[in-house]
Amino acid sequence: MLSLLGGYLLIFIARVSDVSLATLRTLMIVRGKGLIAGCIGFFEVIIYITALNRVVSGLDNPINLLVYALGFATGNVMGSFIEEKLAIGLTTVQIITEQDNLCSLIRDMGFGVTVLEGKGKEGSKKVLIVSLPRKELDNLLNVIEENDSTAFVTIMDTRASKGGYFKRTMKDK
């Protein structure tokens, strides 16, 4: 009985691990980090084959398949959670606001801000464009919420950036 439970646990943990790694590997590919993705993929496939071997060699036990599927589902959740906590890469935030002081508050945080004049249904607006490391996103969103809870905010994943204030400030860190 203990051997069966250990086998189920091995399948579950292996599947959670390999699917979590697959999520991270995919994100590294999207962000142009092929070498890191390759290294992650190496370990991912070893773990995957180990779990799959355990399930295929025990096809007479349907619980193996259920644990394998549960590990897959859990791995997707865990991979997303881990990626969110690592917050690798860059993001671009576009803020549409009527507040004049928001731009200087964001610049005081050390971020470059490009300001465009916009015209909305209800008049003139400022469109602020900010590129920043994803790890800093929550701080920026807090400042926006505290100073203009009516601002319209869009967040876009940034694959790469070149030049400008952002590049200079990243070198200083």
What does the model show?
There is one protein chain. With 173 residues, this protein is of the alpha+beta class. It has two domains: 2-86; 90-172, Alpha-Beta Plaits, CATH 3.30.70.120. Helix content is 60%, strand content 19%. It is built from six helices and four strands; from the N terminus they run H-H-H-E-H-E-E-H-E-H. The chain has a four-stranded antiparallel sheet with strand order 2-3-1-4, with no helix packed on it. A hairpin with a 2-residue loop joins strand 2 (114-120) and strand 3. Helix 1 runs antiparallel to helix 2 (34-56) and helix 1 (2-30) packs parallel to helix 3 (62-86). The longest helix has 29 residues, at 2-30. The termini are far apart. The model has no long low-confidence stretch (mean pLDDT 87). The chain crosses the membrane at residues 34-53, 65-82. Keywords: Cell membrane, Membrane, Transmembrane, Transmembrane helix. Residues 111-163 form the DUF2179 domain.
List the helices and strands and how they pair.
Blueprint: H1 2-30, H2 34-56, H3 62-86, E1 90-97, H4 102-108, E2 114-120, E3 123-133, H5 137-147, E4 152-158, H6 164-172
Antiparallel strand pairs: 1-3, 1-4, 2-3
Helix pairs in contact: 1-2, 1-3
Strand order of the main beta sheet, please? 2-3-1-4
Would you list the SSEs in sequence order as H and E?
Answer: HHHEHEEHEH
Largest sheet: 4 strands, antiparallel
Give me the secondary-structure category.
alpha+beta
Mean pLDDT: 87
Q: List low-pLDDT spans.
A: none
What general outline do the C-alpha atoms trace? Answer: elongated
Radius of gyration: 23 Å
User: How much strand?
Assistant: 15-25%
**Distance N terminus to C terminus?**
55 Å
Structure summary, number of beta strands: 4
| Range of helix content | 55-70%
Q: How many domain units?
A: 2
Tally the helices. 6
